[in-house]
Design goal:
The protein has 209 residues and is α+β, with helices and mostly antiparallel strands. The chain has two domains: 35 residues, no CATH class; 133 residues, Nucleoside Triphosphate Pyrophosphohydrolase. The chain is 18% helix and 40% strand. The strands form two sheets. Strands 4, 5, 6, 7, 8, 9 and 10 form a seven-stranded mixed beta sheet that branches. The protein has a three-stranded antiparallel beta sheet with strand order 1-2-3, with no helix packed on it. α2 packs across α3. The mean pLDDT is 92.
């Protein structure tokens, strides 16, 4: 049951490594479904209140997203058909990590393969977990600048429409509801903060998981 006490004010987050009174204990685990790109895991857990529950989630290899800044006003974007929702979405370039692949090297590879651009300047903006209720996916975000076009090389079945737009226009599309992809929304706002001189997110080194 939830606490019956009113919430208390908190001015600091728990320190990393401190015991978590909300943690659930894994009793057993099994592979529920082996996918082509992802695996579905089914665990039995013990909750802090003594309840036993089932947790099903997607085990994800991790991903990167690239905020590709063509000049101070323009970003490189894509339109891609997303089958689960049956329509195309406007997105920033992104892709999954290959086994053992360095995160920044993955960003370089995805930018080149999907958009045809290479970047001379790279900067990590931060990372986020985009689907914490059903996936362990973590997306690392890099800012790419000083771009030069060398030609795209997408895989068979990866059909993209690459285009450029003012990043302020992208913010307008987000406000209007025309852009709803969460990673692109985060990337656009982190870019705005970065260009205004405010830190976009954490500055800790990237970590898997």
């Amino acid at each position: 049951m939830a606490e019956s006490k009113p919430p208390r004010p908190v001015d600091a987050l728990p320190a990393a490594g401190d015991p978590d009174p909300l943690a659930e204990v894994q009793l057993d685990t099994r592979l529920a479904y082996p996918g082509v790109f992802f695996n579905v895991i089914r665990d039995n857990v013990l909750c802090p209140d003594g309840h036993r529950g089932v947790r099903e989630f997607i085990r994800h290899p991790g991903a990167v997203m690239i905020v590709a800044l063509l000049d101070e006003n323009t970003v490189v974007l894509e339109r891609q058909f997303r089958y689960p929702l049956g329509r195309s979405f406007i997105e920033m370039p992104a892709g999954k990590l290959e086994p053992g692949e360095d995160v920044q090297e993955c960003a370089r590879r995805e930018l080149r393969e999907e958009t045809g651009y290479e970047a001379r300047q790279w900067q990590r903006l931060g990372a986020f977990h985009n689907a914490i209720g059903y996936s362990d996916e973590k997306i690392e975000v890099y800012l790419a600048r000083e771009l030069s076009f060398v030609g795209a090389s997408t895989e068979a079945g990866e059909v993209l429409e690459v285009f450029t737009a003012p990043w302020r226009q992208l913010l307008d599309w987000i406000e209007q509801g025309s852009v709803t992809d969460v990673k692109t929304i985060i990337g656009a706002h982190w870019l705005e903060r970065h260009l205004s001189g405010r830190p976009a997110a954490d500055t800790a080194p990237p970590a898997r998981g």
